Amino acid sequence: MKIKHYTAGTLQEAMVKVKNDLGRDAVILHTRRFKQGGIFGFFGKDLFEVTATLEAKVPSAGTGPKRETAPGLPNNRASALEAEMSQLRQAVEAALLTQHLPKERTNSKLKDLLLRNDVEPLVADKLLQDVLRQVPGGTDTPEARHCLEQRLCQCLSRTEGIKLAGGKPKNVALLGPTGVGKTTTIAKLAANFTLIEEKRVALITADTYRIAAVEQLKTYGEIIGVPVEVVFTREELADALARHADKDLILIDTAGSSPRNDKQVQELACLLADLPDLEKHLVISATTKPRDAMDIIARFAPREGAYKLIITKVDESDTLGAIVNIMYNTQGVLSYVTKGQSVPDDIELADAQKLAALILREQNYA
Ligand SMILES: Nc1nc2c(ncn2[C@@H]2O[C@H](COP(=O)(O)OP(=O)(O)OP(=O)(O)O)[C@@H](O)[C@H]2O)c(=O)[nH]1
Ligand SMILES: [Mg+2]
Q: So what's the pLDDT on residue 345?
């Protein structure tokens, strides 16, 4: 029996060497991981060695002629080893299979496009699977592209801005991490509802962590011509809301909190808990890393569907995939997209068709 050893940086690479050299009938006899180089076993490079042969076919347990037990090994130990080898072989073959899937499935132009847009690989795969179900001919056709656009639209279709209540004030609080644009967005909304829709608006800020934050909102209030209240407690917030019962819209600014700071997140939740008819809009920057965005949503809006999402700074991000990831993975409703620092211009209602088209054309709002 001719036994050969194959070494590589990963087990998969070593197995590819085995398959290339011995073909698919290679029998794996042994695998091991070892370190090369380094000092006293430290800092060495991890390597994998696969020992394989072509000639000694190991019959599978329970089938074929009765085989002889390997010398020195009791019967049950030999079959345990055999089972282990068979499992290893199956695992390696499965790994090799995914490595050599037809290009169409793993590397289509549409998938590349989604990945370039920072859509997470898993989300991209799921979207393309849906496309393939409707257009079985493959993903690199105009039909598939059209179908993907529709699928993206569907994924982004939960959109709704602020709907005024009529007869009583609509209370809207913006919350989210620091510096994402909460106060600027409140100014944009206040200006649009006051100057364009001619509604009565009041602003309340609960961001008393920084003097500058209060001054920032007061300045916007003066320019737009709307009253601004500063509150420190839940009771003061409830009183301020009651004082503006004659308004159409009351926008509440909150202090930015780190999602990792439990105390801040808890304080914010307490401040806003049980307020009548309060609509919460979670503000997330389009530049946020996908994993961080999911973390922010989990921390600030743990109850699914109980919040709307404002995506800010889309002008600062090259890609819009972050919005797809969030909408695919949550039940949130998109309300607004902000696209610059200019008040009141740089805000618009979230529009699923526009977002889907921008993603497919690899364009952004800038
Ligand atoms: N490019 C860009 N900048 C924005 C946008 N929205 C806000 N900004 C800028 O982001 C910075 C922070 O905005 P703020 O509104 O103060 O953010 P915030 O979330 O209230 O910040 P904290 O109150 O400190 O948590 C400012 O320089 C804004 O002009 C946007 O859509 N695009
Ligand atoms: Mg602020």
A: 92
pLDDT tens string 77-130: 666 666 666 556 655 554 554 444 333 344 588 999 999 999 999 999 999 999
Residue ranges per domain, the chain?
A: 3-99, 103-155, 170-360
Confirm if 326 and 123 have CB atoms less than 8 A apart: no
Helices (H), the chain: 11-22, 75-99, 103-106, 109-116, 121-134, 142-155, 182-191, 211-224, 234-243, 262-272, 290-300, 321-329, 352-360
Q: Are 28 and 51 in contact (CB under 8 A)?
A: yes
pLDDT tens digits along 241-285:
999 999 999 999 999 988 888 888 889 989 998 887 899 999 999
Ligand 1: residue whose CA is nearest its atom 26 = 181
Ligand 1 centre to CA of 313 (Å) is 8
Residue with tokens 């909408």: 327
Contact 104, 140 (CB under 8 A): yes
Q: CB neighbours of 131 closer than 8 A, spacing ≥ 6?
A: 110, 139, 144, 147, 148, 151
Backbone angles phi, psi at 40, to 5 degrees: 50, 40
What fold is seen in the domain 170-360? Rossmann fold (3.40.50)
Six token digits for residue 127? 């979207």
Pocket residues: Cβ below 6 A from ligand 1 = 178-184, 207, 213, 256, 312-313, 315-316, 338-341, 346
DSSP designation for 42: B
- Of 344, 343, 340, give the one whose Cα is nearest residue 365: 340
Residue of 188, 209, 211, 341 with the most ligand 1 atoms within 8 Å of its CB, for mutation: 341
For a mutational test of ligand 1's pocket, the pick from 180, 184, 264, 313, i.e. the residue with the most ligand atoms closer than 8 A to its C-beta, is 184
- Eight-state DSSP code of residue 195: I
Name which residue sits closest to atom 6 of ligand 1, judged by CA: 181
Ligand number nearest to the C-alpha of 336? 1
CA–CA distances in Å: residue 324 to residues 129, 265, 327: 16, 25, 5
